[in-house]
Amino acid sequence: AKRQGRARWCAYTPDLAQRHARLAAIEDRLRVALNAHALDVHYQPVSHAEQTCWQRFEALARWNDPELGFVSPAEFIPVAEASGLIGDLGRQIMRRALRQAAQWSRQTRQRVTVHVNVSAGQLQGGDLPAQVEAALRDTGCVPSQLVVELTESEAVVATPPVIRQLNALRAAGVRIALDDFGTGHSSLSVLEQLPVDCIKIDRSFVRNIDVTQRRQSLLSAILKMTAELDTELVVEGVETPGERAVLDQLGVQFMQGYLLCRPVAASLFQVADDRSGLI
Ligand code: C2E
Ligand code: CA
Ligand code: CA
Ligand code: CA
User: Fold this and answer.
1) For residue 148, what is the enclosing H or E element?
2) Ligand 1: which of 117, 119, 123 to mutate, most ligand atoms within 8 Å of CB?
3) What phi and psi values does residue 234 have, to the nearest 5 degrees?
4) Distance of CA 175 to CAs 59, 60, 186, 187, 202, Å?
5) Is the distance from the beta carbon of residue 256 to the nearest atom of ligand 1 less than 6 Å?
């Protein structure tokens, strides 16, 4: 058994070294990209069941590096979080998204809202409300145009400074969403302890919901819970018409997913003819 253990350790070593080099390269290049303000943002609509065009979008960071090529946020966000770059990254994405919301609002004469992902680390400094206030002021957006999505919320510990910041944001009119609700990352205890306006259900609860009775029951129970709590529910990752039909039938109001629209560059949306939003 010991021999086997050693053999396995040896076999893993080159992989580990490679992995380290990759992470180090990402950190270096990310630093360069942030200095150059070179990250992009893609937008995915948060669709409303009764509306045909969109007034609400999630901002998702995108990075195409000249040396590394396209790097997924699933890879570079954890690096940013671990290396202290997440604060700068978060500020840049938030400003970019709010500028876009302001532009779309002018074009449509509707109040366009953006959801911006915020990592636990961004609540560490204690100055998120001030940062948000500055970004709103500089972009000309009103607070109700911003929803802060708390990602990796398992790392969001409901300490007094965290609760104080979330309360300050809400008092100003910014809404708070719990991302990936139901995955280990975001549990009932987080919902119990943090002031939130919206919960986002992870795709794993929606996949094949049309053929999985247990998932339907679970989602139906979550809907009742959010109604009781007066919390908005957004269902993520809707990919098939079958999944959508079940969600419609259950009365889900807000959905995101490839079926409705993939995350794309802002320039791919256009103002609807009646200016009621974007298409
Ligand atoms: P998330 O916030 O849960 O975002 C949803 C992810 O699911 C996005 O991946 C989106 O492209 C993808 N998605 C949307 N619809 C569908 C669908 O129908 N099917 C499937 N399979 N996937 C779908 P993406 O853009 O790769 O982002 C991954 C994660 O990276 C995000 O997950 C979020 O946690 C994080 N992230 C992205 N941008 C930022 C950012 O600006 N700041 C922070 N802190 N985190 C970010
Ligand atoms: Ca999110
Ligand atoms: Ca999510
Ligand atoms: Ca996620």
Assistant:
1) strand 146-150
2) 117
3) -115, 130
4) 15, 18, 17, 19, 19
5) yes
pLDDT reported for residue 10: 53
Residues of the chain with pLDDT under 70: 1-12, 153-154, 185-186
**Whole-angstrom Cα distance, residue 232 to residue 48?**
12
Identify the H or E element spanning 167.
helix 160-172
pTM over cut 0.90? yes
pLDDT value of position 2: 45
- CB-ligand 1 contact for 73 (6 Å cutoff): yes
* pLDDT for 182: 83
Query: How distant, in Å, are the alpha carbons of 27, 29, 209 from that of 38?
Result: 14, 11, 39
- Residue written as token pair 């709590």: 229
Nearest to 225, CA basis, from 191, 248, 257: 191
Report yes or no: 139 and 97 within 8 Å, Cβ to Cβ. Answer: no
- The length of the chain in residues reads 279
Alpha carbon separation from 173 to 167, 176, 208, 252 (Å, rounded): 10, 10, 36, 24
Q: Could you identify the atom of ligand 1 that is nearest to the CA of residue 73?
A: 30
Report whether residue 96 contacts ligand 1, using a CB cutoff of 6 Å.
Answer: no
Beta-ladder partners of 48: 254
The torsion region of residue 237 among left (phi > 0), alpha (psi -120 to 50) and beta comes to: left
Residue 97 tokens read as 């998204």
